[in-house]
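Colleagues,

For the teaching module next term, I've prepared a clean inverse folding example: a structure given as tokens, and then the sequence designed for it. I'd like students to try predicting residues themselves before seeing the answer, so please don't circulate the second half yet.
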């Protein structure tokens, strides 16, 4: 499906438009609002942009924020590729994208570091503008594949990671697989740690484009260091099909931090119990994180690798 994308020269009125919208948002959120930030290209003086204001609202309770913001005409759009992200938009005379996060969510720091680095480095700001010009000239940039985003957005991913690396962003963050870099990482983790070593064909090869299956990567800064494949059931259950982190990160508590992020996200979606099939070598990891021996009927009914013989689970 083709989508029209308009990129225009920087407009000095954008910060003023943001301030007016921010005041309305703060009023609607009341005590729930911790702070609000102008982000994205319209927040960087001199940078060409789509004429849509992007803002982050940091709140104490994102679920309450939904009702508060819908009352002033903002439409809830979902989390897209960022777990625990609450996206809203307003269209009309003013186009606004609002990203709502609970305090301490890593995307807050990421967006501010990206914005501030471009503000302080005109050469890199202009590099970004040049990339946008190139993409807008490519007809395929206007199309979507199996992502909620156009190729125009996806093809900016590597540049954005470059800037974040230069800016020194180092936080742990979890994203749904979205662009080519993230899907390549998913395949790498599956082949390296799960199916390749046992000479097995991947029994879930068809699950990359299936609504019941979600694939997430774990970043430390701009480097992908972990991956998980989760399958959802209609009865408030989820199954961790695969979870892996780079071998050199396994004594750094990264796996437990990844699992905690997964659990927090699944709980926010209403999941009541998580299942997994643990290898003997992974059982200690699950037990350490509160999982117990919980038999379950496999949603798919696939035969297991002989090493995957211990069913475990945890109630959220």
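(Answer key — instructors only)
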């Amino acid at each position: 499906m083709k989508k029209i994308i308009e990129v225009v020269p920087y407009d000095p009125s954008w910060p003023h438009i943001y301030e007016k919208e921010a005041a309305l948002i703060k009023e609607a959120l009341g005590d729930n609002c911790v702070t609000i930030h102008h982000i994205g290209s319209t927040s960087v003086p001199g940078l060409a942009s789509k004429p849509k204001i992007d803002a982050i609202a940091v709140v104490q309770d994102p679920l309450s924020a939904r009702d508060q913001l819908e009352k002033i005409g903002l439409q809830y759009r979902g989390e897209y590729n960022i777990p625990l992200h609450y996206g809203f938009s307003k269209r009309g005379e003013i186009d606004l994208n609002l990203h709502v996060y609970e305090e301490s969510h890593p995307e807050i720091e990421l967006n501010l570091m990206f914005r501030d680095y471009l503000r302080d480095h005109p050469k890199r700001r202009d590099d970004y503008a040049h990339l946008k010009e190139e993409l807008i000239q490519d007809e395929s940039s206007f199309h979507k594949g199996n992502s909620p985003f156009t190729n125009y957005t996806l093809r900016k991913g590597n540049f954005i990671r470059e800037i974040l690396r230069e800016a020194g962003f180092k936080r742990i963050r979890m994203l749904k697989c979205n662009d080519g870099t993230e899907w390549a990482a998913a395949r790498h983790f599956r082949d390296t740690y799960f199916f390749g070593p046992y000479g097995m064909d991947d029994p879930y090869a068809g699950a990359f484009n299936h609504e019941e299956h979600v694939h997430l990567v774990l970043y430390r800064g701009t480097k992908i260091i972990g991956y998980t494949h989760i399958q959802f059931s209609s009865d408030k259950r989820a199954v961790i099909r695969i979870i892996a982190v780079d071998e050199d990160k396994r004594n750094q508590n990264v796996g437990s931090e990844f699992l905690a992020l997964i659990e927090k996200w699944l709980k926010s979606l209403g999941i009541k119990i998580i299942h997994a099939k643990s290898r003997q070598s992974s059982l200690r990891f699950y037990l350490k994180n509160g999982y117990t021996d919980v038999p379950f009927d496999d949603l798919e009914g696939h035969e297991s690798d002989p090493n995957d013989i211990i069913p475990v689970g945890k109630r959220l």
